[in-house]
Amino acid sequence: MSKNYTLLVLFVTGLWFSASAQKIKYKDLFVLLNAKNYDQAEPFLRKFISQEPDHPNANFNFALFYQYILSNKDMLKETEDYTAYSDSAVLYFRKASELISEKEIKKHDEYYQNYYRRDLRTGKYGVKLADVLFDIEKLIEQIKAGKEGAIKLKKHFELAVQNYDSAHSIFKQFTSGFINYQHFLFTAGDNDLEALKAMDIRYESSISSFNNYRSVLESLPKSGYNQLLNVIHFKGFTEINSANFYADEVDVHDFKDWSEVTFEIIKDELMPLKNNMVAYNNKLDELYVRVANEGQTVEMELNELKGNRLFDILRKYDENPLPANLFEFKISEITYYSYVNHNKEDGYLDSMNIDFQIFVYQDLQSQFIPLKRSFDVLNAQDVEKRQVFYGEFIASSFGGPDGFQDYLADKQSAISAESDNIDGILDSLMLRAMYAVNENDSIPMFISNSLEINPLNTKLSVVTLAIDTLRSGYWVSGIRVSPEVVSGFIANVNYNFEVDTLFVSDFKVPFTAEGLAGIKSHIFRIGLSSEAVVFYTHPPNNLTCNVSFINSGDMKWSTTINLEGVLQSFNVDESNEQFVLSFIKEGDPANTEVIRLDLEGNIVVGGD
User: Fold this and answer.
1) How far is the C-alpha of 138 from the C-alpha of 135, rounded, in Å?
2) Which of 150, 194, 489, 516 minimizes the number of CB atoms within 10 Å of its CB?
3) Residue 358 belongs to what domain range?
4) How many domains, in total, are found in the chain?
5) DSSP letter string, 200-248
6) Which residue from 23, 97, 29, 33 is spatially nearest to 64, judged by alpha carbons?
7) How far apart are the C-alpha atoms of 112 and 391, rounded to whole Å?
8) Residues 6+ apart with CB under 8 A from 342
9) Is the pLDDT of residue 60 over 60?
10) Do 58 and 52 meet the contact criterion of CB atoms below 8 Å apart?
């Protein structure tokens, strides 16, 4: 056990007995006070002061005791205690300042040894009253400044916390009151805009208060705090925990930036968009009435509507917006019926030209595809789900979800009917285009894939087959098969697929079912007004070739040539005005001969 500790125990014991004897000796108490052993000295000091309230040094040490307590108080968490002890310390320092005198210093200079120093004027050592009083005034000023600083610190700190918590609370109201950020954007009203403004103001006030807090903090020598803000920027709805402003690094979310961006989106883009959507929908409906009921064409007005940025804004905040899909369907619908009206105005739908009609309706069919596709996209959307985002628009334009569903059902029925109508007309035209009508029978306008004919069929009627067509001039060559003979024909067909002229060529071969497949025919255009038609046979038929020449719609001649081999090619030598037939003799490709005919059908002697 150390000597100092033993003495301290003896002092405390002596004080205990003195206190028990109802009288405390200050010189014994001073030992504890001088050692800053306030835990043991406090009860004795309080009792001594109650017995001798005007004791100069006791009051001085009581002030130092309160100053000691202040040094262990948290300015932020114990502000009330801090200010109360500050007042107590100042009170006792002022009282001590009034009680300490020259007489006190001379009589009890041992109590003021902290002020024992050499006088620069006299060179003597001692305690000067002026030094003690000056120090007390400095301590009073420091404590008062600390008290004022603590009050300001607490005020700014609490304002920073309260305003931030208020901004955070508004944000949590949004996240709990709406399905998601997208829902909030599309359905926010004026009250929500006011709340966004309040969030902005609260957050800005919080940051301003925190900056004021930091300024006060830097003016205090020992506050125990040195917080810095870590500002976190964020988008949309996200989980945000409460901020701990007592932490060294305070994580705060930038509610000001978020509220300003969100406010701008809602106020400047989406709120006007709601009105624009209704107006845009009404304009499309007006155009639809004009094209569907009044037979007008509206491409110019429609192009102006297509230039609206409404679609871009919708898709900026919703990947699959119901209104945009609806508008695209309506645009496709108007585009299609406007196109139909153009064809009606130009008389295309009433044309007697079968091929042209087929082209027109195939073109309409291709124009109809975007309409069907856009409707499928629209019809695939969950109306009940999208009602959450576009309830106001759906109610205004369709009377609600049920009205919108009825609209979709009506459109689906109309689209199916139009699709069936186009397909039906095309099927009828395609069938009509397969045969050219003759007064006695019909001539097929399609190439037969097979020339295999059951001989029994030829006993019932004449079978007509097309072998080659030249549709640019509506010429067709083919064969007529009777029970005994196969003969060639050439027909000129008008644009309404009626036979204008029918020629029978000199080509005739005996009918055999096996040999029918060996018959070939080709049509060639010569210049602007002539055609050449060649019929020929392959084994097992006799090798026969027939050439017919037609000029300006009249059959000029038709001649049959017996070949000594299989016809390999038929060409027109327009420079020499000759027809050139090349055939292979004895099945040897190296053994090829050529026959030339002039434009009168005569064999050119000496032709290579």
Assistant:
1) 5
2) 194
3) 276-431
4) 3
5) HHHHHHHHHHHHHHHHHHHH-S--S---EEEEE---SS---PPP-TTSS
6) 33
7) 84
8) 297
9) yes
10) yes
Strands 565-573, 578-585: parallel, antiparallel or unpaired by DSSP? antiparallel
Tell me if 118 sits within 8 A of 124, measured CB to CB: yes
Give burial (CB, 10 Å; 0-12/13-18/19+) of 400.
middle
* DSSP category for residue 268: I
444 and 413 share one domain: no
How far is it, in rounded angstroms, from Cα 132 to Cα 140? 12
Q: How far apart are CA 347 and CA 121, in angstroms?
A: 127
Chain CA centroid to CA 457, Å: 67
Bridge partner list, 545: 536, 561
The pTM assigned to this predicted structure is 0.67
Q: Are 35 and 114 contained in the same domain?
A: yes
Q: Tokens 């569903």 appear where?
A: 405
Same domain flag for 295 and 426: yes
Residues 322 and 445 in one domain: no
The band of 439, judged by pLDDT with boundaries at 50, 70 and 90, is confident
SS3 187: helix
Report which of residues 394 and 506 the model is more confident about.
Answer: 394
Are 288 and 359 part of one and the same domain?
A: yes
Q: Are residues 380 and 495 in the same domain?
A: no
Tallying the residues shown for the chain, one arrives at 608
pLDDT, one tens digit per residue, over 521-573 is 888 888 778 888 888 887 777 788 889 998 888 889 999 888 888 888 888 88
H, E, C per residue of 458-507: HHHCCEEEEEEEECCCCEEEEEEECCCEEEEEEEEECCCCEEEEEEEEEE
The CA-atom distances, in angstroms, between 448 and each of 466, 482, 503 are: 6, 17, 20
Question: Of 342-351, 527-536, 591-600, where does mean pLDDT reach its minimum?
Answer: 342-351
Q: What pLDDT was estimated at residue 245?
A: 96
Is residue 355 domain-resident? Answer: yes
Six token digits for residue 175: 């996240």
What is the C-alpha separation between 272 and 420, in angstroms, rounded? 41
